[in-house]
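Re: export button greyed out
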Amino acid sequence: MTDITHPWQRIFVALDTTDVSKAVDLANGLKGSVGGVKVGKEFFTANGPEGVHRITECGMPLFLDLKFHDIPNTVASAIRASLALKPFMVNVHASGGSRMMIAAADAAKDTDTTVLGVTVLTSMSGEDLAEVGVDVEPLEQVLRLGKLAKSSGLDGVVCSAKEVVALRGAVGKNFKLVVPGIRPTWASADDQRRVVTPKDAIDLGADYLVIGRPITGHADPIKAARLIAQELTDI
Ligand code: C5P
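Workaround output, generated via the alternate export path:
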């Protein structure tokens, strides 16, 4: 990805659909208002690498959000396979442990692909963590996994905007913080529990913002993206 000269280049639009034409049209229409596209399990499971390739023909950077979590050898192989799509960013679950993350980082080491760790899913509460045997507050677990991701050689983590300041203190500057759960003041929160505006997320220190429904679910997605871009430019 070329250097960021405009704040809107930090936005990755989440193309959460199974419909290739819809995703391709959105990607083409949004070029110039967002910096990249995010493709996740929904689109990938329905359309595979061929479908992703159709999207990346728009020329924007790709965040391939497949959140791998498996034995180290399998995760490394999956990362290597994903490199055929020349992703700007890929990710793995940090809870897969240091050996898995070291294998993931090593698989992408001679490439420009950024490998991120997912700390604690923003959909999980303290009670959800306790249920699976993690008896600490989500923020403590996020910091623990963020530091482990860094010491394992990953390039950054996906986290909530509410965790950005504490994480930045724990992992330093040269570690990418990618933030979903973003809502402009004029958009609905949908199922996101803790939302932050695009401007506030950047002010807090996020490197990239993942924004889905406020753009893709808007009656006029291009207008919505331009509105967000304008709000960010006014920082
Ligand atoms: O539509 P919305 O803006 O809520 O989309 C957010 C995107 O970020 C979705 O693709 C979702 O899967 C993803 N995501 C998230 N929370 C995380 C990790 C990823 O919302 N912790």
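The mean pLDDT is 95. The button fix ships in the next patch.
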